[in-house]
Design a protein that fits this description.
With 75 residues, the chain is of the alpha+beta class. The chain has a single domain (2-71), classed as Aminopeptidase (3-Layer(aba) Sandwich). Helix content is 32%, strand content 33%. The protein is built from 2 helices and 3 strands, in the order αβαββ. The chain has helices spanning 9-23, 38-46; strands spanning 28-33, 50-59, 63-71. It has a 3-stranded antiparallel beta sheet with strand order 1-3-2, covered by helices on one side. The longest helix is centred in the N-terminal third of the chain and has 15 residues, at 9-23. It starts with 8 loop residues before the first helix and ends with a strand. One of its GO terms (molecular function) is acyltransferase activity, transferring groups other than amino-acyl groups. This is N-acetyltransferase domain-containing protein. Residues 1-73 form the N-acetyltransferase domain. InterPro entries: Acyl_CoA_acyltransferase (IPR016181), GNAT_dom (IPR000182). It comes from Gossypium tomentosum (Hawaiian cotton).
Length: 75
């Protein structure tokens, strides 16, 4: 799996999903991500997502999650 990382596939898919949302007049996308997943957090921030809040014990094993969002009105 490591050999498939850092090739831009995830970014391309996310950009396509964002564009699809824009064409369908969706105003906000939100997601949850483990704050320890630094590469994922970086990708979301690079594409304009902002951290909204921390959700305690979101994942099993008492792991937290960041709730992130992308508002199209501000882009």
């Amino acid at each position: 799996m490591e050999s498939r990382r850092r090739q831009g596939h995830g970014e391309a898919l996310l950009k396509a999903a964002i564009q699809k949302c824009r064409t369908r007049n969706i105003h906000r996308i939100s997601l949850h991500v483990d704050p320890l997943r630094i590469p994922a957090m970086g990708l979301y921030k690079k594409l304009g997502f902002q951290v909204d809040s921390l959700i305690k014990c979101y994942y099993s094993g008492d792991r937290d999650a960041n709730r992130m969002y992308l508002d199209f009105a501000s882009n």
